Amino acid sequence: MHRTFLTTLMVVLLPSIAPCFADKALLREHCVDCHTGPDPEGDFSLHDLGRGPEESNVQLWIKSLQRIRAGEMPPDDASELSPEQSQTLQSFLQHSVTAYERASAPTLRTPPRRLNNREFENSVRDVLLLDHVGTNDPMAMLLGDTLHDGFDTHGETLGISEFHLDQYLAAVRAVLDQCILSDPQPESQQHVGTPDDLMIQDDGNRQRRDRTFRSDRGIEIRSPRERAVCKTFPETTATGYYRISVQAKALDRHVYPQQATGIHDDDPLILRMHLGNRSVDFSLAEGEFKEFEDTYWLAAGTPIEFSFATDGLRLLNNGNFKFQYRIGHDHIKQHKPNLYRRVVTEEVPRATNRRDMPSHWVHWVKYWQGPRPMIGGLTIEGPFYDSWPPKRQTALLGPEPSLNDAAEILQPIARRAWRRNVSPDELDPIVRLVQQQADSLGIVGALKEGIVAILMSPSFLMPGSDQLTDNERFAAKFSNVLSATIPDAPLMAKAEQGRFDSESGIQEELNQWLRSGRAEPFLREFPYAWLQLDRINFMAPDVDRYPMYEKKRIGDDMVREAIAFFQHNVHNNHPIPELLTADYSFINADLATVYGLTDVPDDSVLRKYTFGDGRRGGFLGMGAFLTLTADTLSTSPIHRAVYVMENFMGIHPAPPPSDVDIQEPDIRSARTIREVLEAHRSDTSCAACHQNIDPFGYAFENFDPIGAWRDHYVDASQQADASAAGNRRRRTVDVVTIPVDASATFLSGARYDDVTEFRQIMMNDVSRDRFVRCFVTKFLTYANGVAPDNFSEIEAIVKRSSRHDYRIIDTMAAAMDSPLFRETNR
């Protein structure tokens, strides 16, 4: 059945290369039965290849080449090809695909797309020379971006409509209103908030009594859900600078054990100050009050609030903070017996509308000694300004703008926004608009309208227009990929000087951006999109079976681990394959609990940790991957296999038929998921695909839905025992365990018995090349907004990467120097 279909390719397509294969009897004997007819094996028919690559079948040619390279075709148990013959076939297939792509001369220009929301916000900020678009959350009304395979840069999902334009217009006006001020200068005032002025904000639907825990020293924030405010200054009165001084400290950091509170003893206590849509964290220690003071530009109407930022205090019952008061009951009962007896005998019986049970949380609220912040006072001074008009305004409009200067004022704004040189003729319509509006709006108001027009133009909202030169396009794209914003003047100047005409020049600039921190948006957003980390809680682990995951927000730590690991590898320019199979990662105490480690510092800081068992490390051993590919109560080798294939190997298996229903393992009847899948594979129409898919997933069956190691599937079920004395039925627990079988064999013949051997296979040359090729494809998808479809160009990038030991920065530079990134044939 499997007498190499690639031998057939030689018979059908190029008999002159290998005359020994030209005998049609070989085709009839070895290939016709499998790859022709109404139901060909693997849904692949020889007729689909035609007489050569063309638009309708070129992907089949590429897939054939990739399967031969991997040794998956012909299958190991049916292979009659020598290594030399296999290499000949590979050369023929690759030459055919390359010749087709050169002859067809596909356009390299990607279709235009609109800015996604984060690019829009960052670009507006930088066009207007701001540090932040505004604490009044001017972007809140924007429609959320739709993701495509995790990417928010995908062109097909970033269409634009009249509604989008309306929301962009409202957002731009809101930003301009808080950075260009036309009213008279407001007077500055000082507001002092004493403990009597501070209170816990009522978050209910009806007015209730003040529930603030207050003393002459200050107020306490006991629950992570509470917000503290100053009654005499709930929000800013005008736009400007505000100097805010907060006196705060931590209370009772170590009275209760951390196993009860969920707050690590070695972590600082965090007081979070909310300034509208911005936040600032203060690390608190016990002892004397500490003063935290800084100056912030705040928009008019910005609320100033404080909260207790922690992932602790949610371990009891369903995670509602009120149940944590029971910790106080347990502590007092053990350590303060006299107080406990008094409360139980005197206070509990007199409690109204409360339960009589002494351990009920409601009786112990006032005795709470858990970790919590205390705010002793608050001083707010403002608004004040460095000058009038403020410098951020004069930087845009000049100190004394006039109509005669409109073109001169708007030209640099348009250059930044449109990412290119702007001719006077292009600005003329906008200058005329300003002149027309000056009588009714005043000079400043009219110039604001001119800026609105610039920011609402297609040249701003739809980057990569044909009006850009090649150098301007490269600078705009480089900046957008690394920092999701417009290019600055130095970058534009370097591009115009030809500094990025070579791979070495691009790599030098990449290194500068990484050292300066300007590439942090890429280092955060690219791995988040590539690994589809937005899906981690789509089917979150069951809270009853895995309570720590939800109550300690383990998913957040897993996301942080993946991003920290990626950033470390990029900053150190490690080889790309190390991302997949490194023996280390970055974990904290909570992740250590999931991973079964005991030698990790007892805090929330992510630190590099080297695993010694061969099971973990790199993307393949991370809880993020293992959790987002699992269901709420169980794991699926198929889900994990498809994820590995698509996101790490660049293989896209055909979706299953709509009527396929893969059941989870029935542990009680001793049926493992392997048995279920084997039964599924008994259908010949399913077997061809699953023999390729399944080996990429079985290796991870030792990891449960939160990524913890397991040697057995376990199920505990209750049964009634009627033989008990007095004929009273007694519930017994029947625990069934079945060893996990994490072995499989690839079509190539490579076999593994567990995840450690699977990881070794992922280190071979075939897996390395697949992973590097996948990285290049994902990077270009992120950069271009569309997946690249030029096989030959990607192969050239991978080859250039190999010359530098596949190091990440070198590979990124090679990709940026390629026609696929430049979008032009050189």
TrEMBL record:
Residues 748-821 form the DUF1585 domain. Residues 113-179 form the DUF1587 domain. Residues 185-210 are annotated as: Disordered. Signal peptide: none annotated. Residues 473-597 form the DUF1592 domain. Residues 616-712 form the DUF1588 domain. Residues 406-462 form the DUF1595 domain. This is Planctomycete cytochrome C. It comes from Crateriforma conspicua.
